[in-house]
């Protein structure tokens, strides 16, 4: 009887482990999303700016210019440990040897060429909403940028967060292909939603998170604690941001607020990127922010 019970217990454990292995498996993009026309590097420059790639992947203290060096190295503190932005320049140390499909899997699904999960410090939950052709254009532009031989730094994460396989469970809880702002909105606000929710991933900083680090979409853009522990990221719903659409668009272009203050910290880099967009796209983001439900 004891041997039979032990055997049954072992079988249950094995079945449970097999189930966890299955539900935590990485899910690359379907082939239909990867296949398509070659990317347009010139068009990809605007996608690259809207996506804020340089703001995270330039070296510490470096400045964003027309051809930024995406050598990585910036540290991002969080309650789960410290993440280091990797080298994503077109070099062997970066992503120069990767195929377009491998880059798309990484950015839109959080899946490495090796098949491992990337941590959601890479905002692939937002980039999952990006149009595949826009991503191909972004990649084409990325390949025109200067290469860097800098080696990517390892993340500093304690156990159990160091177990990448468990990110698969996090993805099942937090990955979605639905827009947060749904319902009837203007064509201008619809364009702004695409930029703000997908490309610029505004919610990643401005939305509070739950205990496991997933976004609390019921309080979308309502402000959040700074992951570094330094201050608070502001509420940019209409309940917390009473600027006009013109004020918002001008801030995204220049960094100047209606109160004659200027953008600082991480937001200064975001404004540098947003300032490279067209006036129409900045106005669209402003229209979107005015369409978001107010959250006190």
TrEMBL record:
Q: Among its keywords, does the record have Secreted?
A: no
**Domain Cytochrome c, first and last residues per copy:** 39-146, 187-293
Where are the annotated coiled coils located? none
Name the keywords, alphabetized.
Heme, Iron, Metal-binding
Please provide an example of a Pfam family that matches this protein in its UniProt record: Cytochrom_C
Q: Note the InterPro entries from the entry.
A: Cyt_c-like_dom (IPR009056), Cyt_c-like_dom_sf (IPR036909), Cytochrome_c-type_DH (IPR051459)
Q: Can you say what this protein is called?
A: Mono/diheme cytochrome c family protein
What is the source species? Limimaricola variabilis
